[in-house]
Amino acid sequence: MTYNPSRRLFLGGSLAASAAGATGIITPAGLAAQPMKTPQIMYGPTPGIAKLNANENPYGPSDMALKAIAEASRSGGAYYAYRAGMYLRDMLAESNGLKPENVSITAGSSLILAFAAFAATSKGKILGPDLFWDTTSKAPISQGGPEIVRVPNTADLDIDLDALYNAIDDEIAMVHVCNPNNPTGKLLDPKKLREFCIKASKKTMVLVDEAYNELIEDGPKHSMIPLINEGHNIIVARTFSKIYGLAGMRVGYMLGSEENMAFINKFGLGGYSINQAGLAAAIASYNDEAFKDFSRQKVKEGRDIILDAVKANGLTALPSTTNFVFVNLGDDGDANAFRQAMEQQDVLIRGQYRTYQQWSRVSTGRIEDVKKYAAAMPKALEQMYKLKA
Question: Quick one: how far is CA 164 from the chain centroid?
Fold first, then answer.
């Protein structure tokens, strides 16, 4: 049995409290029972800490979502969420001009993306850029699956679609593209991406992760979902974790042909991973255009503050279309040292990605937290060089 101190504390405290409440005597362990202390902060960031490391939308859940969460928890928290799951599945299918069989919902898009990775590696290898959000495509590696086949990004850190296409051979079972890309925040030209997807899907399955699509301007123009209805071998992942502010509620989904979804779903439990509260929030949020517009405005405001701070400190950053910025710390920059220096000022950001030591990713977060990042930057840069030395 694996030792879990948190679990042991919980069980011990609960049992001891129960025993004392029932008998009013000393517990069998010989210790006076003490009431279990609930952590002051359990469900969000610690007060005073600027949490800018996970591309969350801290302005969610929306008021409509919160109302739905309360109702679902009160009325259906004791029951499996099958009915709500099927309702959301039907909503997503109808809004995208697809059939329910073309949609799979899981606890966040990470789960269905991992299912897709396991499905693909049961047949071959996954192909992707050198720099992209590769966590789920790496999942099969821990089970003995193959490493990701990578092609270099361009000098500007764009995804090189031509290089990706040329790297497809008989061993490639899936090409993985994030658009907008994480951690760069860059957006592919929709016409070029569409041409790539059509051409590449004749050779293998193409996955487009559109987690940040709703955050960009004219998102539908950049989506590859219509290619599914046109019969191409494309799967598209979406999530309620970003613009909807439901990262902690864990609802994501994938769209694809009936055959592809049936194959991918064999590698997971599908609907058993979802919960009533998260589904209620997703259903209530999906068409909440006012909240989405508000969130986009806050993202732009935060992004502008970051870019102004970057410029004021003599640095540069990639142009971002979403709720994070990839900052170039300079030739002598060190993203891990910069992260440590920021943490010393109660600002949480991401560290180094792969071999890109000079690049640092920061999320937009709450405006007051972004301002804290901007104010902390001069001292953090100074400290970065000391830590690096």
Answer: 23
> Given this model, what pLDDT does residue 41 score?
77
DSSP code of residue 35? P
Judge residue 297's burial from the number of C-beta atoms within 10 Å of its C-beta, 0-12 exposed, 13-18 middle, 19 or more buried: exposed
Domains and CATH numbers, the chain: 50-60+290-388 (3.90.1150.10), 63-285 (3.40.640.10)
Summarize pLDDT for 168-212 with one digit per residue, the tens: 999 999 999 999 999 999 999 999 999 999 999 999 999 999 999
Contacts of 53 (CB under 8 A, 6+ apart): 348, 349, 350, 362, 363
Of 120, 251, 238, 246, nearest to 173 by C-alpha is 120
Name the amino acid, one letter, at 220. Answer: P
Amino acid (1-letter code) at residue 79: Y
DSSP letter, residue 316: E
| Distance, CA of 248 to CA of 116 (rounded, Å) | 22
Query: If you ran DSSP here, which 8-state letter would residue 175 be given?
Result: E
Residue 326: left (phi > 0), alpha (psi -120 to 50), or beta?
beta
Contact 215, 242 (CB under 8 A): yes
Instruction: Give start and end residues of each alpha helix (H) in the chain.
Output: 5-23, 63-76, 82-95, 109-121, 161-166, 190-200, 219-222, 226-229, 258-265, 276-285, 289-312, 335-343, 367-388
Angle between helices 367-388 and 289-312 (to 10 degrees): 30
What is each CA distance from 184 to 117, 244, 304, 361, in whole angstroms?
22, 21, 16, 8
Number of H helices, E strands in the chain: 13, 12
CB 283 within 8 A of CB 89: no
For the beta carbon of residue 215, count every other beta carbon within 10 angstroms: 24
For residue 12, count other CB atoms closer than 10 A to its CB.
15
> What are the φ and ψ backbone dihedral angles of 265, each rounded to 5 degrees?
-65, -20
Per-chain mean pLDDT for the chain? 90
